[in-house]
Here is the input.
Amino acid sequence: MRQDVNGRYCRISLSSGATIIVEIPMPHMLTSYILQVIRSFSVASELTYSNRLIIHLAWNRVILEGCVNVGLQIEHTLVKAGGRSCIGNELEGPFSCDGNSYLVRLVDKDFFEKCDAIIDYSEQNLTNLALSHHMLGVSSKTYLIHPIPLTEPRFERHNKGSANEFHHVTTDFSEPLSARRAYMIDRLKENGVRTVNHQGFYPDQYYQYKRRKLLLNIHQTDHHHTLEMLRILPAILSGCIVIAEQKSQHELYRNLPNLRFIEYSDILNYTEGDFRHIYESSIVSNDAIVNLFKSLKKSNIQEIKSLINQHVR
Here is the structure.
C-alpha cells in the first residue's frame, strides 16, 4: 500500500490498483477499526477485478463524487423508545425478546440511504435492520466487518498476570459516570472488587487487553441494548474473559469463546471469589482464539469481496 496525504484526505493506493480515500485525522475511537477495514479491502481487492475502483470510507458523513461511498455505521440499532437520539432516526422494530418493545434506530438515516454501501461492526445490528421492512434499502447494502487485530493473536499463555488478581476487573467505558455504570462500579467496590476503567478506545487496546484477565461490559443506558462488540471482540481476541450484561438477542453471540452473559442485577452480587470461578470455568485454549481470529478474518475478506463485486464497472 502507498499513502498520499493531501490536505483533508489521505489516498491509499493498493497494489491491486484500487484506491481508498479516507478523511484525516481519523477519530480516535475508530482508528483501529478503520485500519482493519482498509486491510480487508487490500486483501479482497487482490482477489477481484478492482483496478480502477475508488473507495471512499465515509466515516465523516460526507459523500464524494466519482467514488464508491462506503458509510461506517457504529451506532446501536436495538433501542427502546425514549432512548438518546431516537427521534427522527427510528422505526418500530420486531423485537420483544425479553418482554420489551424495541425500535430499529438508524442515526443519520438520510446519509446512509445515499451511500453506495455500508459497513457495520455488529451482527446484531445487521439482524435488526434485516428484519425491519422499513430498512430493506439500507440492509441490502450493509456488510459485516468484525473488529479484529491486524495480525494473528499470539499468547505465551492464556493471559498474563497473577492468578490471585481477580479483585482487579477492567472496564472500558467512554462514559464511566453514567448512572447505571457508576452504580455497578460502586457496588462491586463494596464487595471487594477493584475496577479500573480505560476510558474509550485507544491505539494500543489489544496490548492493554492482553495485560488483563477480566473485562466487564455494561450498557451505558437502560435503552441501548446492542452488544458493544467494538470492545468485546478485541478483548476476547486478546485473551480476556468478558462478562457482558445479558439483553435481547444475546444468543447471536453465545458460541463466542470466553464470553459470559449475566443479568445486571446478578452482577451486583459478584465478589472476588465469584469472578475467580467465572475465569476458571470460561478459559479456553489459545488455539480456539486463533481459530476464531482466522474465521473472522476470512469472513471480513468475503464481505469486502461481495461489496467490491457489486460496484466493479
